[in-house]
Recover the amino acids of this structure.
DNA sequence: GTTAGCACTCACGCTGAATGAGTGCTAACA
DNA sequence: TGTTAGCACTCATTCAGCGTGAGTGCTAAC
């Protein structure tokens, strides 16, 4: 279907376009790379490539631009693997030193890291669907009037908030209460702590409405959190550096989309059964119409086969696939071990 | 200096310009408001106002645009106070219901709230300079191999992270260690926990290097956190809606500035001695050259006279001062009581 | 199969004219 | 003395027209 020379030409066009964002002309190829053939010949090949659906022309007298199909072919069977530079490896290896102790923080800073390394927008979806169960709660005394309520879940996540201590209640009483409530809720999935259970909690903490309200609120929040899929967006500013986003309205449109959690969740939804590798979605392959001139490289974290989150890099189809993929691959594996050792 | 009619005209021009972002012409004023005078008369007055430094002309045949001086005059002695709508009050009153229990969360969501309400970029600087002291630390058991290390400060802030339990160490031993370290550090300002103290901590936890390293890391982090002035940026997207930021490069420039924590810290630095009211900085009054076409409304939180943070709304000079100021004023007072009751 | 040559297309940039939104000035008017 | 109608003037903006140059596609010769 495509002869080796066409393949070569296609590759050069794609790589040229990725780095310049300008339609590529036959003469440019001839000049820049010594293929031993004339622009005219290249033109003929380009014409064929266009017929095959790999190239497109913005208008008659412009050079050619790779189609989604071309990028797909490039990613699947042309691109050389790409290695992560030592500097990038070092950046990743050091990045989590100061930030590894809290899931939200990890996700948030992963988004930052990804966008910094790939010069593109990044999305991280923390999918905590029914992950954790209640372990126990405890009051940490602060002063005469306040204590800190800590709720500990079996995945190591902790929620704490300040509560007012009922006048005259002593630490021992608080501990007693904590123990009673803890025994009641122990082992319950956080997102299943509903009104009936909270009713029982009420019977434990009947003494003080205020305290009860505080505890309930914290429990609710933690349950809510554990249910929600939180989206972290990183490096939105990167968009502004891409020539394809010179137009403020286009930026606004895309940013508007990415700020809607629902849209992003849809976008990143992964087929439960898919293999655990990277997934690359290119241009028109995207179902969401607002990003059909964008590509996305996506990786999913699993812990014991259970999906914990998804991270993705989103950029113009003219993306440095080699770089992005290798970085994501490295980071993906790095996080795997991070998660594995952290828990 | 300015007669009542000029005053009126200036006011109308400012308000017109604020709402349209277009240079205001004499005829526009005459048409839109029934002043009983002709455009020619208005022109004469405008000419005077220009001489006085209140108006500027982008070019000869354009209408007039208010100068920084005009806005200053407007804010100081022309603007009617402006009330917060019931909807806005309700939004503020409800906003912190779910988010009040953690300082960072409060700041972050304040930034979001501010930018949402004022349709402008918001900045919140959490200035925790030397605020908190170490109270105690504690290990919350998780499973056989892990525990959660909680460090509690006297301002109610908590830091927790997961640590590996040395093989075979029993909860009681952990508690004993925690007590020992706590007694050692109790009352020390977090940002003064330095190498000498940590050396003493080492002597407490001599048994296990790994555990020691974890504890030190957490202490360091918390110390670092308490020292740092954290900047929260809200609603950067709002910029894109302002006609003065139609140009991507301008947006990039400003966003670049606002992403540099140091710059923002400088920008928000408040003269320690200033009164606790709102501070409005208009256009060329700004020292930072990148934002001399912007205005900033700024409020400072204090708790017991000590500065805890600063919040600001940043927008084009053509800002709805009345709205922004009233919202900030209301929010400011609201947060004051929130802080007062929370601690 | 390759390529030189040439016709053709079309975006882009420049120029100049028309347009219209403004102002400033002047002279007349109340 | 303040107001205003009228008019000249300025200048950004728009648009058509034109030349230019970067491309391609085709053809004929090698």
């Amino acid at each position: 279907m495509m002869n080796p020379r066409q393949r070569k030409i296609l590759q050069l066009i794609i790589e040229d376009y990725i780095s310049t964002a300008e339609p590529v002309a036959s003469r440019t190829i001839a000049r820049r790379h010594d293929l031993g053939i004339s622009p005219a010949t290249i033109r003929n090949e380009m014409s064929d490539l266009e017929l095959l659906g790999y190239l497109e022309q913005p208008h008659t007298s412009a050079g050619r631009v790779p189609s989604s199909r071309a990028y797909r072919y490039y990613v699947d069977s042309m691109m050389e693997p790409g290695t992560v530079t030592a500097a990038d490896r070092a950046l990743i290896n050091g990045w989590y030193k100061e930030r590894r102790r809290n899931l939200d923080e990890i996700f948030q800073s992963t988004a930052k890291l990804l966008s910094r390394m790939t010069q593109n927008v990044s999305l991280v979806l923390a999918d905590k669907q029914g992950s954790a169960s209640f372990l126990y709660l405890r009051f940490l005394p602060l002063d005469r009037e306040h204590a800190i309520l800590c709720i500990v879940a079996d995945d190591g996540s902790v929620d704490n908030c300040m509560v007012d201590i009922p006048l005259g209640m002593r630490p021992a009483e608080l501990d007693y209460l904590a123990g009673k409530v803890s025994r009641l809720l122990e082992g319950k999935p956080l997102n299943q702590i509903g009104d009936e259970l909270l009713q029982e909690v009420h019977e434990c903490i009947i003494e003080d409405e205020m305290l009860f309200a505080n505890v309930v609120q914290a429990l609710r929040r933690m349950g809510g959190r554990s249910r929600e899929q939180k989206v972290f967006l990183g490096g939105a500013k990167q968009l502004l550096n891409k020539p394809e986003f010179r137009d403020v309205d286009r930026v606004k449109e895309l940013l508007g989309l990415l700020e809607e959690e629902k849209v992003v969740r849809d976008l990143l939804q992964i087929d439960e059964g898919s293999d655990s590798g990277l997934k690359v979605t290119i241009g028109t392959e995207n179902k969401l119409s607002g990003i059909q001139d964008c590509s996305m490289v996506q990786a999913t974290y699993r812990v014991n086969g259970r999906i914990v989150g998804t991270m993705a890099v989103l950029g113009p189809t003219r993306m440095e696939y080699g770089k992005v993929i290798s970085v994501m691959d490295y980071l993906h594996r790095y996080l795997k071990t991070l998660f594995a050792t952290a828990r």
